[in-house]
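Bench notes, afternoon.
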Amino acid sequence: MRHSIQRLRAVPLATKLAVCGATGLIVLAGCGGGGDDEIAQPVIGARAKAVITVDGKQFKDSNANGKLDPYEDWRLPVERRIDDLVAQMTLEEKAGLMLINTLNAAAGGALPPAAANMVQTQKMSRFVFRSVVQIPASGAQVTPEQAAMSLNAVQEMSEATRLGIPAVFKSNARNHYEKDPRVGINEASGAFTEFPKEAGLAAASLGAGDMSLIRDFATVMGDEWKSIGLRGMYGYMADLSTEPRWYRVHETFTENADLNADIMRTLVQTLQGSKVKDGTSVSPSSAVALTLKHFPGGGPQEMGLDPHYAHGKNQVYPGGNFGYHLKPFMAALEAGVSAVMPYYGVPINVTYEGVTYEQTGMAFSKQIVTDLLRGKLGFKGYVNSDTGIINDRAWGLEMKTVPERVAAAINGGTETLSGFSENKTITDLVAAGLVTEARVTEAAKRLLKEQFQLGLFENPYVDPALANAIVGKDAHRAIGMDIQRKSVVLLQNQAQPDGSKTLPLKAGAKVYTMGLAKTDTDRYGYAVTDGEALVGGVRPSAAGHDYAVIRVEVNNNKLVPGTTTRATSTYKSDDPATGGRINPATGRSWGYDDRCVNKAAYSAEDAAKACLDNGLTFGGSFPWENGKMSFTEMAAAASWQISPPLDQIQAVMNEVGPKKTVLAIYFRQPYVLDDASGLKNAGAIVAGFGISNTALLDVLGGKVLATGAAVKPQGKLPFALANNSQAIVNNQPDVPGYPAADTLFPYGFGLTY
């Protein structure tokens, strides 16, 4: 049905109550009355409930009782509104607030089929949005306009519930260069403006010497997310990149806690706001409410393995740096971050300020969530678990039943259970006396604060017609490109025989390329040979060219020889050929800790499930190849892929001459430029952290193609690079950098022209 838009006239102040409409879309701006000390009339967006007028002000009658309840009165303090609403809620409605699960847009922007069960039956109001947003959209993709339509449809269904509690949609990071997005980790940028990865933002900020570029980035991101109704984020990651082997380093900003603290503070202040009220800085003018992760710092993983997997559940601090990893979180808490997400990891032999932490997953730990986060650090928001802690990654509680795990998380201080949508589990726990209703009420109050502060009770809707014009608009993309260019770090720039430096590239030069689209390079006026355009099945020679420019990327998508199967997808915890291999650190198989192998260590319900780690779907290499970080080792490994292959890079360098070679390496992790690889002999080496070909070529040539403006490298390394892979293996996971003898380029290093 088509919804009409009505704007109501102000009524005399003597008129205390008027019902302004029971159906249809009603959007109301301010009208009449009020002194300087009054809150301005907000826009009221209503599709399923009436709008009432009291004292010349408009309010949504969210519970449809024909009168103005305190929770419907936007003039009242948030805490009073929360208390009034919670007093009207059933246990089931309060329990529903504690659930969050994936709810993607339906085709064409329709109401998602799963919404009815989640909203109406499970009483949920928080959802994770993982749809790829693209223009044009294909398959399961949606355009920004369709995304907005679909989220609006869920909001309308939520508004129609008994109390009209609005929904909050969250997403993982979207506005970044990403060729290998993984479900539950991050999303492809699609139509959203593309910026460098997080480390690139840090590199650009180090080069700029302030946080202005972080503010520019966050402003663009916030505008785009808000335009489709995406008002929450699972992010950003405040974790530090102190463990180079951890495959999630590509989502971190830096190894330096002080820089990361500045970045987290700036992100919170830009995306949420700078004024802290009622414990957080969220307000109706906030673009996005953040859920900072992964408290108390997910970087120091044992051997760099990740706790998405059973073989990587341990989190260690051999350097005694637990407090160092807390710094970025503390900065975000002081800035008023809305929510915090603990990680799956289990702290092993950790004592901090006299407290020895129990060896259980962070989200289950009362010591971590209640005593440290809330008690010692004074956090006033809500705690959102990472996805799957109940059914899949209940580390430390493997023998417990699902209800016992839920009870442990809730009683430990966690309010929202991500990846979980069974209301009855919580209500049954209350009935059994394992969780008190008072605790559920406390959680409900903490959770509702975000919806009230965002102004969603007044208007949760967006205008879909505006979304396509906002997401990825030219002005935003110009900012994204500027920051991409500023993120490039010049590591090496050797002199040529004529005394000039290798970079910038000379105008009109003969350039041999690999890893770059010829159509992109041609636009710069070079005489280009595409080294990947085979002639008769043979790669053309680079001999005789002025330069060879090779863009190098590394991933874990190497295929099983002779197949189209990704090697890591063949990993099975109970397969002797993969999970059955022995971990030399433990003397047991890599798959030993999975529920399908060591069944006696799990509850009967879990022991009957399929292997958790099969396929290594969240990313990373084979666990036994996790420490193979040098280019020589990665080239020989089964699960690391270098593009172009190392042997081809070496052949091209020999043909054109090493000093005429320019290597542009994407440091998704802090890889090692080892001596045996020969890569250090290149005339120039630049480090990138996820940038487009255009941004890269602008910097290599010293001129912005679109404007003709001069440009030169200004980024600085956000993490140190080791000169040998053993240094990475020997590195303490919680300590940044390496000894001087093992350091190739230190943190903060960067040259320019």
